UniProtKB/TrEMBL annotation:
CDD domains: RRM1_SART3, RRM2_SART3. It is found in: Cytoplasm; Nucleus speckle; Nucleus, Cajal body; Nucleus, Nucleoplasm. The keyword Coiled coil applies. Residues 14-54 have a biased composition (Acidic residues). This is Spliceosome associated factor 3, U4/U6 recycling protein. It comes from Seriola dumerili. Residues 1-13 have a biased composition (Polar residues).
Length: 931
């Protein structure tokens, strides 16, 4: 009742303030009219113009949501605009739509709840607000929402059962957030204040002796408050010393020893947690690493309630981190195993991160584990299919999880049952789903790529053979598998053969192996051997003769094909050698002709060339390094006039103008000789290696010195130049002390004239050949997209303008050559995975200045030239591909695409010879031709 009167007073106060405001506005209007103010019409025009613009923006956002209802940022922007315009009905509808798709943050819920409370002051409408609060507390565990819920319920305590309802809400709040180390104390104090307010209503007036009933009611209320103090003091909370002092003052007979014991125990626990709380106070949101450390500590402590509240606090600030949800749900599945808690947490996980297949899969397993209704499991699976996974393989895995669930429901002792028919129907539906080719969704057309080996069909065939004893259906399924491009792989035929061996008969085993010999192209020797072994065990002499004849014929044909391919590649290699020789001869003739024409002093020229050659080979400041950045690899070796062992200059390389080049050459040579004359000045332990600088960087020493002087006193900066005087894009910075090196490494990837500068430890690759520094990710980055096909004129600002409509941009990086010339490639990092996946769907095949761009999730390939077959010191060998011996399939992965199967076979003897004694391409050609 007190709360209701307060609400009425607040309403009256608002009405009085509104009336006063209207009077003030009328007075101002009269004053303006008296003063002859003429700009009121202009202000009205500006206001109406703003309203029109806002309405147009609202309509645009609503249209965008009608196209893509899962655009989270679009929902947030629409709600902000509608609230600004005061469109209460549309605002409520917008919030409702967003809450159906996503969990709402604490701020959005509190705004919505406060608006609804103001709109429903009358008693009959309180139930609607209660329902809204119940939805709010399920999204995240937020102390402020629980506190608002309890305080709102106090306003209805005058209704029948109102006090009990308030206590019930407070008790639920204690269970949910009472252990919150920093905010839990506020909820405890609100609960005690409520009970103290009840106490004041049951206390008799001073001087009057209470009746027996009044005394019992008074004692009961006092005991409630005592109990609340004792419960709170047993929980480790920040500033709990003040609560203990308050209890000492409030308790008439002092604090019991048992309470003091519990308080000291909680205080000790609070001191252990205090460093983690303090670290989070100074950390920047979302504090993921700090929460991870805190959670690991609580997991070691082993208190389930504290582990749960710590997870909930972490997820309130990191709700879009799938790994955090996975860790939490795994803990609940394996440790607590409380059905309602487990299932509600799984549901919240998939609502927050719907694009993560693993969370949906865990949800389905949890539903089955806790005996959920079959319809509920089916509904969750359908939602998973529409969640919009990033990878095609995710669809295969979620189908597999659901099919496993359906298989476990079937009683195979019955020849036919409703569950078995549903299982077969779902298998058939999954196959139809995989082979769809719907134009409006590029992912659907890619789903078959996620199951190239037809795993689902293989499982179905095995179930039909093992459980249903239906080999005819299993064979039909394997026929279909082989028609989908798998007939050339030996392992597929052997899988089919093993199925026939286990559940079929020798006739079909023999038939399968004969087909395998005819069709296999990757490892035909292996299937031939299996066929001969089978006939040794099962077959007659006639069967053996047929098998021997068939295998010999097949292997002879395979060897002929391999020889033709090898000969063709050898001829191509020989032709390439001849062309290279002709180019070298022409270049040599041209040089000789120029020397004759110029009539220069041959002796001095020769001496200069020898000096340059000596400088180049004594340049120990250019160790061999591999630097991968997701889009290019930088290698430094000895350079000649034509590049790396005759290699052309890097694409985009711009030569220095003749005048500047001559001056630069003299300065570079002088600096280089000066450094070479003082080898004792070099100290790798106090030096860093700078690379990936642009070739056209003018005066690199002066450019880099201000950047690295902030790390400590510099002893010397050594830029590395070629024998022609051009800057090679890397240098050394040597400090006076080793303590400066860690600070310098922090400057790694800082942009210098539009290129990321690589800063790495100074390590001699000759002494440490295994040392590698890899500065960019080589695994899938789901929050980042890779764009190719951009026009060379596209700037960073233009690309950011194109991408920002699809989400929050964290970084845009255009890929360029060292000379600064663009490659037409870019990486764009978004705030989360949802925005990146939406950008891929919307931007792929978009035209930018007449160029059709390709957009995919960033999945850079690993770059290691030393690991490639036939790679010798970073140079690709001309050994024919057919002669490379590989032990297994080699996966070819391009950025943003799925790995494709590539099989290769060759002669082991040729490979062994290649390893023991290097042969030229001509040697290979002669060897193959003479076969």
């Amino acid at each position: 009742m007190a709360a209701s009167s307060n609400a009425e007073q607040t309403q009256l106060q608002d009405m009085e303030e509104e009336d006063a405001g209207m009077e003030e506005r009328e007075m101002e209007s009269d004053e303006e009219e008296g003063m002859g103010v003429e700009n009121s019409d202009d202000e009205e025009d500006d206001s109406s113009e703003d309203e029109r613009e806002n309405e147009a923006e609202i309509q645009r956002l609503e249209e965008q949501l009608s196209i893509n209802a899962f655009d989270y940022n679009c929902h947030v922007d629409l709600i902000k605009l509608l609230k600004q315009e005061g469109e209460l009905f549309r605002l409520r509808k917008a919030r409702q739509k967003m809450s159906e798709l996503f969990p709402l943050t604490e701020e959005i819920w509190l705004d919505w709840l406060k608006d609804e409370i103001r709109l429903t002051e009358e008693e009959p409408n309180r139930e609607k607000v209660y329902e809204l609060f119940e939805r709010a507390v399920k999204d995240y565990i937020c102390p402020d929402i629980w506190l608002e819920y309890a305080q709102y319920s106090i306003g209805g305590m005058g209704s029948p059962g109102g006090i009990d309802k308030v206590r019930s809400i407070f008790e639920r709040a204690m269970t949910a957030v009472g252990l919150h180390m920093t905010k839990g104390q506020t909820v405890w104090e609100a609960y005690r204040e409520f009970e103290n307010a009840i106490l004041s209503t049951v206390q008799p007036p001073p001087g009057r002796i209470p009746s027996r009933e009044e005394q019992e009611l008074l004692n009961t209320q006092l005991e409630r408050i005592h109990t609340l103090f004792r419960r709170q003091l047993a929980v480790p909370l920040m500033d709990m010393e003040a609560t203990f002092a308050e209890y000492e003052e409030w308790a008439e007979h002092g604090v019991p020893e048992t309470v003091i014991h519990q308080y000291k125990k909680a205080l000790k626990q609070m001191e252990k947690c205090k460093p983690f709380e303090e670290s989070m106070l100074v950390a920047e949101p979302p504090k993921l690493s700090e929460y991870q450390t805190y959670i690991d500590f609580e997991l070691k402590e082993g208190d389930p309630a504290r582990i749960q509240i710590t997870f909930e606090r972490a997820l309130a600030e990191n709700c879009l981190v799938p790994d955090m949800w996975a860790k939490y749900t795994t803990y609940l599945d394996r440790q607590l195993k409380i059905k309602d808690l487990v299932l509600s947490t799984h549901e919240r996980a998939v609502r927050n991160c719907p694009w993560t297949m693993g969370l949906w899969k865990s949800y389905l397993l949890a539903l089955e584990r806790h005996g959920a209704d079959h319809q509920v499991v089916s509904d969750v699976f359908e939602k998973a299919l529409n969640a919009g996974f990033i990878q095609a393989t995710d669809y295969v895995e979620i189908w597999q999880a659901y099919l496993d669930y359906l298989r476990r429901r079937v009683d195979f002792s019955k020849e036919s049952s409703k569950e078995l028919e549903e299982l077969r129907g779902t298998f058939s539906r999954s196959l139809d789903y995989m082979k769809q080719d719907v134009e409006e969704s590029k992912w659907i057309s890619l789903r078959f790529v996620g199951d190239p080996s037809c795993i689902i069909m293989q499982i179905w065939a095995r179930i039909e053979a093992l459980h249903c004893k239906n080999m005819q259906k299993a064979r039909e399924l394997w026929d279909s598998i082989m028609t989908k491009g798998n007939a050339k792989y030996a392992n597929m035929w052997l899988e089919y053969y093993n199925l026939e061996r286990s559940y079929g008969d020798p006739v079909h085993c023999r038939k399968a192996l004969h087909r395998a010999v005819q069709c296999t192209s990757d490892y035909p020797e292996h299937v031939c051997e299996v066929l001969l072994t089978f006939e040794r065990v099962e077959g007659s002499l006639e069967d053996w003769d047929v098998a021997v004849q068939k295998t010999e014929t097949r292997l002879n044909r395979i060897n002929e094909q391999r020889a033709k391919v090898a000969e063709k590649e050898a001829n191509l290699a020989r032709q390439e050698d001849e062309r290279n020789e002709q180019r070298r001869k022409a270049k040599s003739d041209k040089k000789a002709q120029k020397k004759v024409q110029k009539g220069t002093r041959f002796g001095e020229k020769r001496k200069a060339e020898q000096d340059d050659y000596h400088d180049e080979w004594n340049e120990d400041s250019a160790p061999k390094r591999h630097r991968g950045n997701g889009d290019q690899t930088t290698e430094e070796y000895m350079e000649t006039e034509t590049g790396l062992f005759g290699r052309n200059a890097p694409p985009g390389y711009k030569p220095v103008p003749p005048g500047a080049k001559k001056a630069q050459q003299g300065a570079a040579a002088a600096a280089q000789r000066q450094n070479d004359d003082k080898p004792e000045l070099r100290n790798d332990n106090s030096s860093v290696f700078i690379s990936n600088l642009t070739y056209t960087l003018e005066e690199p020493e002066e450019k880099l010195r201000p950047l690295f002087e902030t790390c400590g006193p510099i002893k010397q900066i050594r830029p590395v130049f070629s024998n022609k005087g051009s800057f090679k894009g890397y240098c050394y910075v040597q400090f006076e002390s080793q303590v400066s090196v860690p600070e310098a490494l922090k400057l790694d990837r800082m942009e210098v004239e539009g290129r990321p500068m690589f800063v790495s430890p100074c390590v001699d690759k000759n002494k440490n050949p295994d040392f590698k520094v890899f500065k960019y990710n080589t695994s899938m980055e789901k929050h980042k997209i890779f764009i190719s096909g951009l026009p060379f004129s596209c700037t960073k600002e233009q690309l950011e303008e194109i991408c920002k409509s699809h989400g929050t941009i964290k970084e845009v990086r255009l890929v360029t050559y060292r000379s600064g010339k663009p490659k037409g490639l870019a990486y764009v990092e978004f705030a989360d995975e949802i925005q990146a996946s939406q950008a891929v769907l919307k931007m792929d095949s978009m035209e930018v200045e007449g160029n059709k761009i390709t957009v995919a999730i960033s999945n850079p390939p690993r770059r290691n030239m030393m690991d490639k077959p036939g790679s010798i010191y970073g140079r690709l060998s001309l050994l024919p591909r057919s002669l490379h011996r590989q032990s297994g399939p080699v996966g070819k992965v391009e950025n943003g695409t799925t790995a494709e199967r590539v099989q290769a076979t060759a002669s082991a003897s040729v490979n062994a010879a290649a390893e023991t004694k290097p042969l030229s391409n001509s040697d290979f050609a002669r060897m193959l031709v003479n076969k």
